[in-house]
Amino acid sequence: MPHIPQINIHQTYGKIGMESKRAQVQIQQPKADITMHQEQVRVEIDHEFPQIQIDQTRAWSALGKRPSLELTKVIYGATNQIVMDTIAKIAQKGDRLAAIHIKEDPIPEMARDYSVDLFELNFEGDPSVDNVDIDVIPGKLDITWRGGTVDIKVQPNKPQIDYTLGKLDIYMRQKQGIEITVPKLDTRI
Description:
Number of helices: 3
Number of strands: 12
Strand order of the largest sheet: 1-12
Distance between the termini: 18 Å
């Protein structure tokens, strides 16, 4: 059997290569600049103390220990009543003497009843549990606050960003090709 020559075809595929380097990002954020001004609080306090007023005049009066001016007024008021009572008694005796239509003689009866009237003046006042007057005047407290403000200014700083680009290299790692091999032919005939 005769040998038939064959063409040999050999194909090489092309190959590409890739090398990549990632991008890099570095971010730094500086702190914000803060300035602060504070005004101190001022407190003003105004006060008045409470007061207690105690009036014991009526209590001392009930014990017979009156002040002299008040005692003089009491004696004057009592004397006025005593004088009025004495005038009334004298008027009654005068009316009895003027009643001549009564048969009895009023003079011996008046002589027998005659005595010097002694009057007792009462210098004491009326005793009572309410003889002491107590008045309370409340105090006052006024508190005023002033100031106390805070002024804050904030200046933010921009972030510092460093960016390094990534890289992608694409290259031919193997070239494509076709290799055709022809057998040797015997050209002698």
